Amino acid sequence: MSSGVRSKAERWEQRVQLGAHPLLYPAIRGLGSIRPVVRLPGLGILVSEAALVREVLMDSQRFIKNGPSGSGALWTPVVGPKALVNMDGAEHRELRRKLADLFTPGSVSAIVEPAADSLHDRLHHGLDAGGHVDLVDCVKELAGGVISRLLGVPDDAPGRLPNRELFNLGSSISSLVRLGRPTLTERQIAKGRSAVGVLAGPARAAYRKSDSQTFPGRLRALGMTEEEAMGIVSAFVMVGTETLVSFVPRLIALLADSGRIEGLVEDRSGVPSAVNEALRFTVPSPMMLRDVVSPCTLGGVAIRAGDRLLLSTVHASKSLGGFEPGIPIPPHARQLWFGAGPHFCIGMPLAMAEINATLSLLLDRYARHPWVVSSRQVSRGVLIPGYRRLELANA
Predict the structure, then answer these.
(1) Which of 129, 79, 122 is CA-nearest to residue 239?
(2) Dihedral sign, CA of 35, 3, 384, 357?
(3) Lowest mean pLDDT: which of 68-72, 194-198, 312-316?
(4) Comparing 243 with 369, which gets the higher pLDDT?
């Protein structure tokens, strides 16, 4: 791949980052390049080196997720105290152990395949008609279809909300978070609870039916109370929506801009490496938060109990270099975008199934009828960087 083509791919990805955070992104990248650990008055302590980020994530004794300014604590007023994302310690480990069987390859396929079938129909209908297809909107539909499965809603259920509306509800919860906001306001909590209430309606019905074919029914079979099950369902809905819709269009744009689509069409063995490198380069979870509970030293900087750590996965990952599938990722940075240690993303198999299903559909389509990225627009002023619109058209 020529340097000119490579720079096009990376130039667009930088526009995505700057669209979301025109001041904060260059500041974080600049500070991370100077020092691996730096105290930012009013915000917390920025940790930018991959090995140090992993060290923090692996140590749940000194650094916790459910502290007063950690990301987990933000969600407790909205989804309840036992939603996995806001738990630590032995109780958290036990809940993860119970949930592990819900994310086997077979289980996630049953959740993703119906939504992928709808995505297939929409992509082909739009492109076969000779028009344009907005991939961002398509992935929102896919995410909404997955949400409906997590809620246990049959496709033919009377009054079933459209997939896009389900996505919007999930997105309305996750969009409440801001880096400079350690807590949610009463109004934001009320907004989040309202969305959770709408989503929880069908999930409660599925739970009460004890149908083992539904996600809420399986949670009941694991011994979860109804409120615990609703918290877990709500957490999976809100955590996975924005990051998936951010990543998939950026993945396709990177592959198209770097001229790698045709190679993957001819040889699918390169798909895992391309997806993993795109995750590393785009970093769909650009920042993670932890609270310090005991004093220590990190990267030569004294850390006090009560400090808030800003774990810059975006710098830790991007500082490794440009988009180059096939080059091994150093062990200390591997899968850092999914976390590490006790809070490594339990929904990773589900996210990967959605990503791979979408990419497979687009590669299959390209093999029969090549397509191009015809136009795009980056999102501005959002927490998770991404494209607002990414249109595909027949070549």
Answers:
(1) 79
(2) negative
(3) 68-72
(4) 369
pLDDT for residue 71: 66
CB contact burial 269-302 (16+ within 10 A = b; e otherwise): eebebbbbbbbbbbbbbbbbbbbbbeebebbebe
Tell me which CATH homologous superfamily contains domain 3-394. Cytochrome P450 (1.10.630.10)
Q: 115 is written with which tokens?
A: 């939504």
Written as one letter, the residue type at 158 is P
Distance CA 41, CA 57 (A): 22
Query: In whole angstroms, what separates CA 146 from the centre of its chain?
Result: 14
**Mean of the per-residue pLDDT values of the chain:** 89
Residue 356 in this model has a pLDDT that exceeds 80: yes
The single residue listed with the structure tokens 């199934």 is: 353
Would you give the distance in Å from CA 10 to the centre of its chain? 20
CA distance 302 to 38: 10
- Strand 387-394, strand 132-134: pairing: antiparallel
Would you state the structure tokens that stand for residue 361, as one six-digit string? 């559909």
- Kindly write down the DSSP assignment for every residue of 258-313, as one continuous string: TT-HHHHHH-GGGHHHHHHHHHHHH-SS--EEEEE-S-EEETTEEE-TT-EEEE-H
Asked if 194 and 172 touch (Cβ cutoff 8 Å), the reply is: no
Q: Which residue has the higher pLDDT, 178 or 378?
A: 378
In sequence order, the β-bridge partners of residue 37 are: 47
Domain ranges of the chain: 3-394
